[in-house]
Design brief:
Helix content: 40-55%
Number of helices: 8
CATH superfamily: NAD(P)-binding Rossmann-like Domain
Domain NAD(P)-binding: 8-192
Structural class: alpha/beta
Strand order of the largest sheet: 3-2-1-4-5-6-10-8-11
InterPro entries: NAD(P)-bd_dom (IPR016040), NAD(P)-bd_dom_sf (IPR036291)
Pfam family, one: NAD_binding_10
Strand content: 15-25%
Radius of gyration: 16 Å
CATH topology: Rossmann fold
Protein name: Putative sugar epimerase YhfK
Organism: Oceanobacillus oncorhynchi
Length: 216
C-alpha cells in the first residue's frame, strides 16, 4: 500500500486524486490550509494535515513524515496577485521539495504548467508571465534535487468528466484535458517507476492512461 501526501489537496485536481488513491486501496494524506476543509477527506478515509504553504519547511516536513511519495498540486489560483504566485507556486513548491528531502521521501510528482521554458516566459502575456516564471524555477529546483521526480505539464484544465484517454509526451500540441484525467495520470505515474526522472505534457487523446504512461 502506498501512502501519498497530496499538497494542495483541496484544489480540484487534489480532490480527484485523493478519492482515486482511497478508492484503489492506497492511503492519502491530504495537506490542507484550513481545518474546516477536512471533513470531505475524512469521509473518504484519508488522513489530513493542516499546513499553510507559507509556513516553515519543518512544518511541511512533519506532514510528510512516513509517506512514500509527495504530490505537489497546489497553486495560488488565477484570482491572486504576483505576490501569492511567488509565495505558493515558487516558494511553496521549493519548500515542499526541501521538506520531502528532510523527511527522507524520495518520490515526488510535480504538477507544473504546460510550457515552462525560457521561451514561454518571454512570450507569455504580462499577467501570466510571473506564473510561468514561478513554475520554471520550481521545476528547475526539482530537476536539480536528488528526488525520484516526475514532472507533469498539463494542458488547459477543464472540469469535464474524465475519459481515461490522454496524449502524453515531451512535444505534444497544446490542448485541453479534464482535471480528473490529470489525477489519473498522477496516480498511474506513482504506480510506475518508469516515470521516474521523466517530464511530459498531458492533454486529452485516444490512448488509455495506463498504456500512455508506459511510453513516456
Amino acid at each position: 500500500m502506498l501512502n501519498i501526501l497530496v499538497v494542495g489537496a483541496n484544489g480540484q485536481i487534489g480532490k480527484h486524486l485523493v478519492k482515486l488513491i482511497q478508492d484503489n486501496g492506497d492511503q492519502a494524506r491530504a495537506m490542507i490550509r484550513k481545518e474546516e476543509q477536512a471533513n470531505y477527506f475524512k469521509d473518504l478515509g484519508a488522513e489530513t494535515a493542516v499546513v499553510n504553504l507559507e509556513d516553515e519547511v519543518d512544518t511541511i516536513s512533519n506532514a510528510a513524515e512516513g509517506v512514500d511519495a509527495v504530490v505537489f498540486t497546489a497553486g495560488s489560483g488565477p484570482k491572486t496577485g504576483k505576490d501569492k504566485t511567488l509565495m505558493i507556486d515558487l516558494d511553496g513548491a521549493v519548500k515542499t521539495i526541501q521538506a520531502a528531502e528532510q523527511a527522507n521521501v524520495k518520490r515526488f510528482v510535480m504538477i507544473s504548467s504546460f510550457d515552462t521554458s525560457r521561451e514561454a516566459i518571454q512570450s507569455a502575456p504580462e499577467s501570466f508571465a510571473p506564473y510561468v516564471v514561478a513554475k520554471h524555477y520550481a521545476d528547475e529546483w526539482l530537476l536539480n534535487s536528488d528526488l525520484d521526480y516526475t514532472i507533469i505539464h498539463p494542458g488547459l484544465l477543464t472540469n469535464e468528466p474524465g475519459t481515461n484517454q490522454v496524449n502524453l509526451g515531451a512535444n505534444v500540441e497544446r490542448g485541453e484535458v479534464p482535471r480528473e484525467d490529470i489525477a489519473k495520470v498522477i496516480y498511474t505515474s506513482l504506480k510506475n517507476d518508469t516515470t521516474i526522472g521523466k517530464r511530459f505534457r498531458a492533454v486529452a487523446g485516444q490512448t488509455a492512461v495506463e498504456e500512455a504512461i508506459q511510453s513516456v
